[in-house]
Amino acid sequence: MSFKHACICRFYQAQRSYNEGKFQLAYNEFYTLAKLGNSKSQYNLAVMLSKGEGIEQNLIEAYAWAKISEEKNNKYAALTEFIVNNLSANDLTTAKSLYQNYYDSYAYKNSKVILGPIVEINKNMQSSKQGYKLVADFRLPPKYPRAMLINKVQGWVQLSFFVYPDGSVRDIQVVEELPVRAFVEETIKIIEKYRYHYEKNGERVEIKEPIAATFKLTFSLAADVSPLTQKQGQYIKKLFKRQTQEMKMRNFNML
After folding, report:
1. How far apart are CA 234 and CA 236, in angstroms?
2. Tens digit of pLDDT for each residue in 20-51?
3. CA pair distance 233, 5, nearest whole angstrom
4. 133, 96 in Cβ contact below 8 A?
5. How do residues 172-222 score in pLDDT, each as one tens digit?
6. For the domain 3-110, what is the CATH code?
7. Phi, psi of 218 (to 5 degrees)
8. What is the Cβ-side half-sphere exposure of residue 55, based on CA atoms within 13 angstroms?
9. In the chain, which segments carry CATH 1.25.40.10?
C-alpha cells in the first residue's frame, strides 16, 4: 500500500470515527492529515474546533485552519466568516498571526498529498488539453472485493487524477462512488499502477506538465437471473442506507 493510498484510507477512517461519535479519535486523524496539507481535513478540523468536538473549543485556532482550507476551495470561506463574527478584535489579530504561521507550514501549496472525495468536478472531462486522447500503456484488472462478490453487490467508482510526463498517475481524488466504500480502495490500488501516454491526431504527444483526467471503473457481475436471498437483500439495503445517511451529514458540518 502506497503512502497516498494509506492517507486516503485514513481520511475515510476519520470520517467514520466522526460519524460514530468518536470525536477525539476523528480529531487526531484529521489533525495529522491537516498538517500534511489536506484542505478537507483542515476544514473538518476547523469545524470541530469551532464546536468543541473532540477538543476544547478554540476559535482562534479554528480560524487559522479554516482560512488555510480556503486556498483549495473558496466555498470554505463561509466557515471563516462565521468564526470571524465570533472573535473579538484582539482575538482576531492573534488568529491572523497563527494563520500565517500555519500557512507557511501546512498550506496546500506546500503539500503533494491530496486526500478525500472532492465536491465538484466536470464529469465529462477526459483531459484538460482539448484534443488530447488518453491511452493506456499498462493496466491491470481489478480484483472484485470478496465481501461484495459474496453478496453480489455491484457498483462503480469515478476518480480524477493527473497523468505526469513519465506516464504515472498521481494526485488521485474520488469524484463519485456507489455504494460508499464498497469498491474505492481496490480502484485506487489499481489506478496507481496504471501508466498512460497522450496522443493527438493519432500520434503520441510528449507532455511537459501534468494533465488532468477522469476515470470510471464499474464493478459488475456476469448475468445472473437468480433472485437475491433475503440476507443479500438486507446487506445491500444496509449499504445504501449508510450511503444516504452519510450524504445527509453535510450542511456546514463535516466534509
Report:
1. 6
2. 889 998 898 888 888 877 788 899 999 999 99
3. 31
4. no
5. 888 888 887 888 888 888 888 889 888 888 889 888 888 888 888 888 765
6. 1.25.40.10
7. -105, 130
8. 18
9. 3-110
